[in-house]
Design goal:
The structure is a single chain. This protein has 153 residues and is mainly beta. The chain has a single domain (3-152), classed as ph1033 like domains (ph1033 like fold, Roll). 12% of the residues lie in helices and 30% in strands. The chain has two helices and ten strands, in the order βββββββββαβα. The chain has helices at residues 113-120, 143-152, and strands at 3-8, 25-27, 43-48, 68-75, 80-81, 87-88, 94-95, 99-101, 103-112, 138-141. The strands form three sheets. The chain has a five-stranded mixed beta sheet. A three-stranded antiparallel beta sheet has the order 2-8-5, with no helix packed on it. The chain has a two-stranded antiparallel sheet with strand order 6-7. Strand 6 (87-88) and strand 7 (94-95) form a beta hairpin. Helix 1 runs antiparallel to helix 2. The longest helix is centred in the C-terminal third of the chain and has 10 residues, at 143-152. The chain is globular, with a radius of gyration of 15 Å.
């Protein structure tokens, strides 16, 4: 069994946070290799950032993110293609989120950012921008790191 952590942007005002897809892992083209080792029944911590990028041409507001781990989930699929087009953002960036790993929510929770940093042995000044393998937002963590987070939860 592997243990993972992923980062998510906070929900937009109209997002359905009760949807099973809200807790899935999404990876952009060129960074999908970060999820190739994900297997069914692996466990995943989901971290929510404070903000997200706004799509070009759309007006919506993100809710204020919780800046910490918000849930634990079980992986129920391996890496699979997701047919999405190019998304362009107000900051000039563009991403094709064409890969996904489906998950099943175990439970919601909250572990503050500074406690997540301590458990992963990161500086308390770290904000999980560019987090993960290949800056994908997904990282394989050690069983020890997983257990440290679990003991806080």
């Amino acid at each position: 069994m592997n243990y993972w952590m992923t980062t998510h942007w906070p929900p937009r005002e109209n997002d359905n946070v009760d949807s099973e897809e809200f807790y899935w892992i999404y990876l952009p083209n060129g960074r999908q290799q970060a999820g190739e080792r994900a297997r069914v029944d692996d466990l995943l911590w989901i971290y929510e950032s404070r903000t997200g990028r706004q799509l070009l041409g759309e007006r919506y507001d993100y809710m204020v993110g919780r800046l910490g781990i918000i849930a634990i989930a079980r992986i129920i699929s391996e890496l699979e293609p997701r047919n999405r087009g190019l998304e362009q953002y107000h900051d000039g960036t563009q991403i094709e989120w064409n890969w996904q790993i489906r998950t099943d929510l175990i439970k919601t929770c909250y572990i503050p950012r500074f406690e997540v940093c301590d458990a992963l042995n990161y500086s308390r000044n770290y904000f999980f921008r560019g987090f993960g393998d290949l800056h994908s937002g997904l990282k394989l963590i050690t069983p020890y790191q997983f257990e440290r987070l679990d003991s806080i939860n």
